[in-house]
Amino acid sequence: MVDPIYIIAAALGVGFAIGILGNIGRNFAGGLTLATIAFMSFVSAQWFAGFYFGNVSSSYIFTAGFQPPLSINLLMGAEEAFLTFIVNLLGLLGGIYLFVNFKRKGRNAFVIYLVLLMGFNVVIMTRDIFNLFVFLEITSIATAGLILIEKGNRAVGAGFKYLLATSIISSMLLIGIIFAYFYTGTLNIDMIIESNLRYMVGGPIIIFLILISAILELKPFPANGWGLDVYEGAHQGFSAIVSAGTATASLYMLYKLLPIASPEWSYYIALLGAVTFIGANLLGVKQRFARRVLAYSSVGQLGLLMLILGLRGFLGPNVNYVFFGILITNILAKTGFFWLVGIVKANEIKEWAIIRRKPFLLFLMGVFIFALVGFPPFPSFFSKWTFVMDLANHGLFGWISVIIIGSFLEAVYLMRWFGYAVKSEDDYKFDFKIQIHKITPIIILTALLFVIGYFTAQFTETGAMINFIPLLFVAVLYFADALPIWVKNTIAILGMGIYFYFTYPQLDNLRLIFEVIFIIGGILTLIAGYNYKGKRQGFYPVALLMFAGLAAIIEAQTTLEFFYGWELMTAGSYFLIIRGKKSMPHALSYMLFSLGGAYALLMAFSIANIGVVFPSLDILNNIANYPVWAYGLLLAGFLTKTASVGLHIWLPGAHGEAESDVSPMVSAILLKAGVFGVLLTLIGMGQSTYDLGTLAYILGWVGAITVFVGNLGAVFQEDAKRLLAYSSIGQLGYIVFAFAIMTHLGWLTGFTYTINHFMYKAVLFLTIGAVVLRVGTHNMYEMGGLIKRMPLAFIAVLIGIIALSGVPPLSGFTGKWLFYNAVIEKGWYFQGVLVFFSGGLAFLYLYRLIQTVFLGQLKDNLRNVKEISFWFLIPIYVLIIGLMVFAAMPQLVLQPLGTLIANYFPNNQLVWEGSYAYTAIGHWTGTGVMISIMVMFLGTLLLVKLSTRKAHKLKQFDIVFSGERPHRPETTHVAHNMYAGFYKAVWPFTLPAVETFWNWISDFIHETAGFVRRIYSGNGQAYMLHIVLFIIIMFFITIGGTI
Amino acid sequence: MEFFELGKISLLIGFGLIVLGFWGILSQKNIIKIILSFTIMETGVNILIVSLGYVKGKTAPIIDSAVEQGANHSVLGQVVDPVPQALVLTAIVIGFGTTALLLAYAMKLFKAKRTLQINNFNDLKW
Amino acid sequence: MLRNLLISLLLLSFVYIFYNLYVGFTPKTELDGIAAHYADKGAAEIGAANLVTAVVVTYRGFDTLGEVTILFLTASIIGFFLKLTEADENKVIIHRGTSELLVTSSNLLVPIIILFGIYVFMNGHLTPGGGFQGGAIIASAVALAILANPNMHINHQIILWVESISGVVFVLIGVLGILLAGGFLDNRVLPQGQFGTLLSAGAIPIIYSFIGLKVGAEISNILEKYQKSQKES
């Protein structure tokens, strides 16, 4: 092992020597600097590896040949090794990134950079408080210098404010240190800890001065205007180093100094962390400029880390796992992001559309944003999970809410930014270049994020159970993105097929149903993808990401695996949805509702996890602590995915604007993930020893109202895909309602609806999507008469709407028959009537769909459209066959399902005798109904055909328009604004208030942020006033009363 | 305890200078005056450091003929605390560095806008 | 108005905090902690008559290295901060002229001040003073010279070389401490010598001399930068 003191000796020796060696040339000076940083990284890496493999132990480094406290000593322990390694490695990458900028400024810039890194190392390692002060000053001064590698007045202003702020802070620290020395007779931190300084006269004040300075270095809200300005004003290459290096060093400094103080300081620090985390992220919501957004995000993350530091007493052995997981994600992602900002050079987040010119950069940006928000497989996902679980174990739900609120606010602005990058108009003149020395460090960071994420998962027992192979498959598809579409499509279908083949034997019947819906359904919708030409960049990785998530949900044995799958699915579906042409705002609201739902799940899982050793998914059965809360949160979380009333406003836009083959994926397939979750919850509730009937009752009403609102909304849509989207809301309402009945028949109904909805919604969305591809519009009044051009599509839609409307002979009727039996048996008459009435609404919109699209007169511009694509017809007709079989022989599926449900509800089963099903109320046969209706239908058809053989075909222009030709003739068509009169009567029931409510929430957050951020007036003196005010207020809060 | 004790008086002076410095920092609008207020504050801190090393009636920690020496030149009980004197040296140097840098910044700011009023430098905000 | 009230309140609060520190303070009558050890054994362990120097250069030598680094940093930062363009380099400082008195006395005093500075840092381990003080004295000579002749040319290369070499030597002696004695910056790489003489206290005189040179060079460097930044058309 190389003595860590050589890190310092090398840095300073080279730093001093560059003064003359620099005469050789700037490249030489730069190269020498990088070589030295590489050496420093090597030394700390060596120690880190030693600790990782357990063949070294913590060792002290004594200077001047004396033992402490006589001389200054440094400590190289596991934490120090890790942190110095990270700082040095980032320093090396940063040095490469900034090489050209430094070179332009001359050799001094290299020297200052080298000394800055050395300063970080000493701040991390030293055990002497005055030495800490000296090297902290070194880092401050070096920072103030390097801010100036950016040209312009903004950087100068930022540097000046920074210097003013740090000068005040360091004066406070110095007063504290000198008094600490006076009282304890030592400057060694360990000795000061032992000396019981806090019990001495004046001790609390001294400790206050020391700790408040350490806290202020961490830029607590709201005394952090100076820090924000540095992040924004400095060169982005350097802001990254400040964000990563300074933050790391300052955090560790606080960590070292904390034991001096009494334990309640931990509480104050956690509180400040919470305020900072929420405050900074709240203000971030209002930001327009890329740099400032990142600044707020950095400060927010520091707040989160402070919070963890303060709550470390509750984390037990997990403290390092949680702390370092979040720290490393923040460091890697934030650094990479800052550097990305330095490359793209678009000021406003709206201008980030230009990043699409280099799709790979968009990928990097996505990785950083999803890592920061805490998605899997990045380390912060696992750390946050462990953190929340531990907090719940101690009953600290208030802190969990803080984490959730802050994370959510952060997601709001990061996701909005990403949406702009993916979707906003790119008509900007300015361009950017990718330089190899700038992009390489970013790529290394990204790779590290994935690798460390993987190792973070392996660190825990449950994390190690996660199956990463599907994710690996997604990565393969990403790298194969340059291949033609049919190759990728085939790979994707084969991959999913193989996955299904290997996993389905291990599944119980319940999971098998959903696995079939997810994977087989996925394969069918993917077949339609053969229709597309070109490369369809980015489609396959994200689609497969969603399916990987869905597969993980099915496969999950533990709550962590389930949540992992849930988040993967959310991420994948978000990317899929945002691919649509006008999807930007809808994808954002989808993401935010999904995240809100995911956080509700997280909270519920954490409640279920209380006192549990191994978090298998069974812990959701009979949750003992706060059962109403736990199940309520679980349901709320899952209902965001099923788009139940109140949480439904994201769905119409998201599904309606998606691509033609994406709509069926996210509608027919993805929504079932929510159903699966609701089902798991209800299974758990069924086994609860508590009476949760009220919860189920409420759920039933939610379902019923959703049916009504969804169906009513569908009636008034001009857009065919939105119509289907609203219809999905309603249909999911049926499913939720049926499951909420919590009887054997109720669940059977629920399953029937689930399977049905999957098939007919896939048929309808695929067909309408294919039609849209042909006619180029979503508006139904611009279509019409398409039956002549697309008979096969017409038949598909006809069958789809028959199945949907619940008319015999198709399986919709099966569901309806079961449904009425279940409702009558349960006695939910009011809800039943509401649902029944809504069924009538379904006829209205279904009639509109088939009439306005396929019947009536063909539009002029559509005279030459062709039948929908062959590749769409394949899955459509496969599904239609499925529908037919299910309708004719429902017993094939319903009988095994009955056995499955009997595990939970053994009473009042459906009794089968051959194809006849009996309940207490009546009986019915699918096969019989199918045969009789078919006979009637074919007979009538034959009769009509025979009797109208000589009929005259009416041409379109047999009728004449009279009067003026309207500007937009199609608006005079019956299809346009079809149910206007009806709308006037019932519009309040479409619940526009829900949308108004969510808009109000959003406005409220924005207004608050806009108001609060005015404290950052930009005036350096005001910032100093904030700092001083912060000190005084904290003084009176912490110890003011006790003196 | 007598009131006019040297250690206590210098401590008071130190505190007084720090508060005075804070006043200047928070209320002066001219950047040069703010920087001067910083140096006043730093001086106050330095005086604090030195006065905390003071031991009544003892001499400077330099071993020469003026000090009574024990075995191996031990001067325990004869001299004031040498450590704060060493620390104050460091503190002065750090103060020097910061002040020099602040002044350089002030020059740069002045060149940018031809003014030294701190209220005019609000480029980054909100 | 409100602002002034707020500031007064803040200052009063500081007075309150400091008052509490002040009333809890009782001056020491005896040394304790590490100071007692230094006073008792410092001379024997380090061999320096000036105990402050013993603390600065050896016991807390690592801090001193940091201090030197801070000066070095400041000089470097100001170096690229106040960097002039080629065109500006050739301009001169316009000033009202310097008085005869100043010019004459500076010609007389500058060499003496430099000599005094050297004396101060070489005897840092024996008498009050040391590297920082000596270096500052040397720099004050440079400042005087600049005042007397604002357009004087300062040889930048000499400053650079002195600065660089003395810094590197300081670090090297520190490293020698690891190899030959107890640890980084241990002064006992050289024999202790006769207590109270110039060549005593191990490497302290050497270290302190180089510190003195380095400090003098750094501050002169800063002065030179400021001097140049006054050039205008």
Give a quick rundown of the structure.
Chain A is an all-alpha fold and 1043 residues long.
Number of structurally distinct domains of chain C: 1
* Shape by Cα distribution of chain A: elongated
Q: Level of helix content of chain A?
A: over 70%
Largest sheet of chain C: none
Derived structural class of chain C: mainly alpha
Beta-strand share of residues of chain C: under 5%
Shape of chain C: globular
Strand portion of chain A? under 5%
Pick out the low-confidence regions of chain C.
none
Number of helices of chain C: 9
Oligomeric nature of the chains:
heterotrimer
Mean pLDDT of chain C: 85
Terminal-residue CA separation of chain C? 43 Å
Radius of gyration of CA atoms of chain C, rounded to a whole number: 22 Å
Describe the structure.
The complex is a heterotrimer of chains A (1043), B (126) and C (233). Chain A is elongated, with a radius of gyration of 32 Å. Chain A is built from 39 helices and five strands. In chain A, a hairpin with a 2-residue loop joins strand 3 and strand 4 (916-918). Chain A has 1043 residues and is mainly alpha-helical. In chain A, the strands form two sheets. Chain A has a three-stranded antiparallel beta sheet. A two-stranded antiparallel sheet of chain A has the order 1-2. The longest helix of chain A has 32 residues, at 153-184. Among the domains of chain A are: 1-127; 460-941, no CATH class. The model of chain A has no long low-confidence stretch (mean pLDDT 90). Chain B has 126 residues and is mainly α. Chain B has a single domain (6-55, 79-118), classed as Helix Hairpins (Orthogonal Bundle). Helices cover 60% and strands 0% of the residues of chain B. Chain B contains three helices and no strands. In chain B, helix 1 packs antiparallel against helix 2 and helix 2 (31-52) runs antiparallel to helix 3. With 233 residues, chain C is mainly alpha-helical. Chain C has one domain. Chain C contains nine helices and no strands. Chain C has helices spanning 2-23, 33-46, 51-59, 61-81, 86-89, 100-122, 131-148, 156-180, 204-229. In chain C, helix 3 (51-59) crosses helix 4 (61-81), helix 4 runs parallel beside helix 9 (204-229) and helix 6 (100-122) runs antiparallel to helix 7 (131-148). The radius of gyration of chain C is 22 Å and the shape is globular. The model of chain C has no long low-confidence stretch (mean pLDDT 85). The chains are: A mainly alpha (1043), B mainly alpha (126), C mainly alpha (233). At the A-C interface, helix 1, helix 4, helix 5, helix 6 and helix 39 of A face helix 1, helix 2, helix 4 and helix 8 of C.
